[in-house]
Design brief:
By secondary structure, this protein is α+β, with helices and mostly antiparallel strands. Helix content is about 20%, strand content about 35%.
Length: about 180
């Protein structure tokens, strides 16, 4: 029998934070980069079981599934239950492009009263609750890495980044969390 390679999650076992901030690696999820014209959104929303958002900096959520507006015709679909999103899109019956990016991305959850300050250490965007409320989503940068940011609760953010940048992003978040803890 041939040796079988077992993929170890890139941030497996990593924890970080301070008294005011907790950093945890989110469980594995299914992710799809979705592109579609406006006339396809009703059918795609029906297939996904939630409304595809059409306004900048917004998201929709139903159960374990979220759709984040990334651009005028671009979304990131995340299913935390690991559903086969490609099968969902295959049966949508509408013009679209869906690319499975499940293995490309890693998510880090930043939570606690210092979460906003931690992210502000490397993100130029105004993350105040007024400007970036619960449900807000945006493609932005953290340090020098591109991220997709989702505010899931008043003091909790989901940071999606490419696996190749995840060690850098986690390290910078850990450093910023330490500063936010003082």
């Amino acid at each position: 029998m041939a040796d079988v390679a077992i993929r170890k999650p890139v941030l497996d076992g990593r924890l970080g934070g301070s008294a005011n901030v907790r950093l945890t690696v989110a469980p594995v999820a299914s992710r799809v980069a979705l592109r579609a014209p406006a006339e396809s959104l009703a059918a795609l929303s029906s297939a996904l079981g939630l409304s595809v958002p059409t306004a900048p900096k917004t998201s929709s959520r139903a159960g374990a599934r979220s759709v984040l507006w990334i651009g005028p015709d671009e979304w990131l679909v995340i299913d935390e239950a690991g559903a086969d999103l490609m099968a969902v899109f295959a049966g949508a019956g509408a013009l679209h492009s869906a690319t499975d990016v499940s293995h490309r991305n890693v998510a880090i959850i930043v939570s606690g009263p210092g979460a906003e300050n931690t992210l502000s250490a490397g993100c130029p965007q105004d993350l105040s609750l007024f400007s970036f409320p619960v449900g807000a989503a945006s493609r932005t940068i953290f340090g020098k890495a591109e991220i997709v940011l989702l505010r899931t609760e008043e003091d909790t953010f989901r940071v999606e980044c490419w696996r190749s940048f995840s060690d850098f992003v986690f390290g910078l978040l850990a450093e910023a969390a330490g500063d936010a803890g003082h």
